[in-house]
Design goal:
The complex is a heterodimer of chains A (320) and B (425). Chain A is α+β, with helices and mostly antiparallel strands. Chain A has twelve helices and 13 strands. Helices cover 39% and strands 23% of the residues of chain A. By secondary structure, chain B is an alpha/beta fold. Classes of the chains: A alpha+beta (320), B alpha/beta (425).
């Protein structure tokens, strides 16, 4: 069996979830018979990796640095096989603005949007364009940091007067923000996983918030405040379409091995892709493990497969 | 927000978020002497279970501490607890069924929030100003609850150097609160961890001494005058309530650590505990001054903050358009942390406020931390100005309070009239 370093924690705002994902992955890898070492990704990451000399890195990091291609770039430099998507796929998926531009170009439905950097406001007078944007998008709109993975910094603007404060909030997390038409409806997530017969879209999970406050984004993925239904009760055609879209987005962004694609289903039955997560949560309440379970793939098998896929991708590029 | 708080624990972060007392100056020799005496004289007892209500020796120490604030309490009305936090839990457990009403200050002690949540209390938070809880608003609230056929099971208050607001309830309001409680036969839980940490002015009588322990239950702790690590607090309450608290405590942990209790006893017998409180008071006064100076220097003119005469906390309020949870993300980028104001409310208010602690960091760290927070606030104020094409208007200030009770005054966020009750579910 192999010696595997599980990278977890880190400095991102999703540190806590990552520590839980990492701990669970470590347990699974040990059960699978691997020699496992957990590394909290900090300033000594490279030194630790050199000391521990693992055969591969299992990246259980979420959010900034861990999911946006930064850590992946370092692992490439070290020549160490690692799990999940590569540098480019991570970079494309975690930049929501870029990912949405690519979706629009590829004809994948995503809510209408505009993206801005702080520089545009500070140096190019973009504030003067806000009025036009507000007309084009129709209220309510959602304002979110382009790269933040969790619900932090996502604000709902019911009227034009709410927009400046929502922008201030979103800019707390990222230099770029996305203003997006709000799609009211059902909150769906489709996980994608590579298998023996190619890429597969797993059963759809629906997040049903218990909170009456529909716009309480923080409640959305919090246990006890949201119920998760898997497989989601959907008309067969909608389910089929959701899975198709998830696979299309996974491939469009160049993601590898696994991902989770979040969608909205509106009252008219139209699906819209919100974003793709290159390293979705792997905790005991996370959506990818739930979807895998519904497809008959247990957690250990899931983790084992993700590790194999990491080795498989590394193999052909192993140099002379 | 919990995700953000997880990041504040990183060593490179200057944390003004915690409520940590300074334990670095407690004399090592004293600790050694106390430990040696227990080993010598009461080793077997220290290692044994004790009575649920606590050791008589501990109660003597408690009586001494309460006497220092002008209170007299009978030993049989006390239970020694595992920290003051356990009192909040036990009182809530004893008195609250799901949906029952608790009246608390707005903002209230952030550590009480999860307790009230856990027992599914319906918490109604009454606004404060520089003189503490607005007792006139409390009376209005009680009237309104009356018309709904409801009555609070108890009123929770930190009247002196309140956590998080740093304000102190004035004497007229204390008297009126005690009267209201008696008229309506309402229990009050007076949480008083900071009363002896006074940096200026004269002490005010605790509610407990004004009421004589009829309707006021008293929560005390050794955490801020000796050590939070020994986990020793106490409650004084009327017999019927105390009996239930005793049963509740048996179920939770049988008894409070005997070792900790004997340490307090040995310490009180061998040393003057007031000396250490005096030395802490000197340290905290200097740190408070450092924080207030730094705030005046580094925070923009749109910010307001309280000027506590004691305790551990300053409460700052920023312009409406700033959400301090998001601001914390920005502050953490610059390795500094505070507690966002929403942690002190059960009804979603407090989004533009923050709690700043001055007891747990040295003066240089306090100054640097406040400077960094000031920078990120200014960043957001400037950005908002750019987005709206205008600079935000400063809120009109409240009247200045008398010397000793704080200088610049901050009005706590007002409750919107349409939704006056906090959700407890």
């Amino acid at each position: 069996m192999s010696r595997v370093a599980v990278l977890k924690g880190g400095r991102s705002l999703e540190r806590q979830v990552s520590l839980r994902s990492g701990a669970r992955v470590q347990d699974a890898l040990e059960r699978l018979g691997h020699d496992v070492v957990g590394i909290d990704a900090g300033t000594d990451l490279i030194r630790r990796l050199r000391e521990e000399a693992p055969d591969a890195a299992f990246v259980a990091l979420h959010g900034r640095d861990g999911e946006d291609g930064t850590v992946q770039e370092l692992l490439e430099i070290l020549g160490l096989p690692y799990t999940g998507s590569g540098v480019l796929g991570c970079a494309r998926a975690t930049d929501k603005a870029l990912a949405k531009h690519l979706m629009v170009e590829a004809g994948i439905p995503t809510p209408e949007f505009f993206a801005f950097t702080q520089t545009a406001f500070r140096e190019l007078g973009a504030a003067d364009a806000l009025g036009a944007i507000e007309e084009r998008l129709d209220f309510p709109i959602v304002v979110k940091p382009s790269s933040q993975g969790s619900a932090l910094g996502i604000k709902f603007a019911g009227t034009a007067a709410d927009v400046p404060a929502a922008l201030v909030a979103a800019f707390s997390y990222d230099a770029r923000v996305v203003l997006e038409r709000h799609v009211a409806g059902r909150d769906l997530a489709v996980s994608v996983l590579a298998g023996p017969s190619g890429l597969e879209a797993l059963p759809v999970v629906e997040a049903v918030p218990r909170s009456e406050n529909f716009y309480d984004f923080e409640a959305r993925y919090e246990i006890g405040r949201t119920d998760f239904v898997c497989p989601a009760e959907l008309p067969a055609a909608v389910e089929e379409r959701a899975r198709e879209l998830a696979l299309a987005v996974h491939q469009l962004l160049g993601l590898h091995a696994f991902s989770r694609v979040d969608l909205m289903l509106d009252a008219a039955g139209e699906l819209y892709v919100l974003e793709a997560n290159p390293i979705p949560g792997l905790t005991d309440t996370s959506l990818l493990p739930q979807a895998a379970e519904a497809a008959g793939i247990g957690f250990d098998e899931l983790v084992g497969r993700i590790l194999e896929l990491g080795f498989a991708r590394a193999a052909p590029v192993a140099g002379p | 927000m919990r995700d953000l708080m997880a990041v504040t624990a990183r060593p490179e972060v200057i944390s003004l978020a915690g409520g940590l007392p300074d334990t670095s100056t407690f004399p090592k020799e004293t600790f050694a002497a106390v430990s040696a005496r227990i080993a010598e004289e009461s080793c077997a007892k220290a290692l044994q279970y004790g009575p649920t209500e606590g050791l008589e020796e501990t109660k003597d120490c408690i009586a001494e501490v309460m006497a220092a604030e002008g209170m007299r309490a009978d030993r049989e009305d006390m239970i020694v607890t595992t920290g003051g936090q356990q009192v909040i839990d036990l009182v809530t457990k004893t008195l609250i069924d799901p949906g029952d009403v608790i009246v608390a200050e707005g903002p209230t002690y952030p550590g009480a929030v999860p307790v009230f949540h856990a027992y599914q209390a319906d918490v109604v938070q009454v606004d404060m100003d520089a003189e503490g809880m607005r007792v006139d608003l409390l009376e209005e609230t009680l009237e309104r609850l009356d018309t709904e056929g409801r009555s609070p099971k108890f009123i929770y208050t930190v009247p002196t150097f309140q956590n998080p607001a740093g304000v102190t309830m004035s004497l007229p309001r204390r008297k009126r609160l005690v009267e209201v409680a008696a008229e309506r036969e309402l229990l009050v839980l007076e949480d008083n961890p900071y009363g002896l940490l006074r940096y200026e002015g004269d002490a005010l009588p605790p509610l407990y001494s004004l009421d004589g322990g009829v309707f006021v239950m008293y929560l005390g702790t050794f955490s801020k005058i000796l050590s939070p690590g020994i986990r020793l607090g106490w409650v004084v309450a009327p017999p019927p309530v105390l009996e239930k608290i005793n049963l509740g405590k048996q179920e939770v942990d049988l008894c409070t650590s005997t070792l900790s209790q004997l340490m307090v006893q040995a310490y009180f017998e061998g040393f003057d505990w007031r000396d250490y409180v005096r030395s802490l008071t000197d340290i905290y006064r200097t740190r408070r001054d450092a924080m207030l100076d730094a705030l005046a220097e580094s925070f923009p003119s749109q910010a307001e903050w309280t000027r506590p005469g004691g305790g551990l906390f300053v409460w700052a309020t920023l312009p409406e358009f700033i959400d301090t949870t998001d601001l914390l993300a920005l502050a953490l980028r610059d390795n500094v942390a505070f507690v966002p104001g929403t942690a002190a409310y059960l009804d979603g208010r407090g989004h533009n406020s923050m709690r700043l602690n001055f007891s747990g960091a040295g003066e240089d760290d306090i100054r640097e931390g406040i400077r960094r927070i000031g920078e990120v606030i200014k960043e957001q104020v400037a950005l908002y100005g750019t987005l709206t094409g205008e600079m935000p208007v400063v809120q009109p200030e409240e009247p200045v309070v008398p010397e000793g009770e704080g200088g610049r005054v901050v009005a706590m966020p007002r409750r919107p009239t349409r939704d006056r009750r906090a959700g407890g579910a």
